[in-house]
Amino acid sequence: MKYFTWNFDDGLEEDKEIIRILKQNNMGATFNLNSSLFGKRKMIGRIGNLGIKEVPLEEYDEKRFSLLKYSIHYRIPEDEIVDVYSGFEVASHTAEHVNLTKCSKEECIRQVQKDQRKLSEMFQTEITGFAYPYGRSNASTKEALKECGITYARVINSTDSFCLVSDTMELPMTGWHLQKNIFEKIQRFIDSESEEDEFFLIFAHGYEFDFNTKESNFEKFKRICDMVAGRDDICCCTTGDAITAIKNTRK
Ligand SMILES: [Zn+2]
Question: Considering the domain 2-38+87-250 in this protein, what is its CATH number?
């Protein structure tokens, strides 16, 4: 079987439109949330298609000259979270979006467990997935996550292989929607005829689809969904379900 999974970070307002489109296409996905930051509103400054700087609303001045172009970076408020994400996998992204490689192991565990507790209370389910804020991981953060019962943790680098890595505590993405060759890569996945299970994790921040540039917009998101949805040989599910299914067939 082939498994195609969307993986989104930060719990942003754009996720509502993303979920509307995913539901139309009968696709699963995973959303990595920071439970201590629900409802926080900022602007995100970008150069080209790269979001590089978050600015608090109080400091944002539309008229001030800047080389950056700005879009909203609004996190969904707590009272809407369960409604928005039910039916999808929610995973941890730390309580406060911290770079774990700069934290002691104890602080890593605190950040992850705080997020897990809150999310599992809200969704009445165990939280076992994770995405590293800023994509940063090391041996100590991996150990900390394992102690928290995390079974997979996404990093920011990408792989050309469709074979699920054996160490899922450093899970690479297969593609970022903004990668130049993303459509070729997805087509190669669709055309591939391997005997083994295959895995394609595609990453995005919801705000990127609001850039409305040629390379980053909701039409592109829909086009990617159209390519892979509704096929007998591709299961479009949550990241956690894809990994569990592949690990089970490898046993
Ligand atoms: Zn993030």
Answer: 3.20.20.370
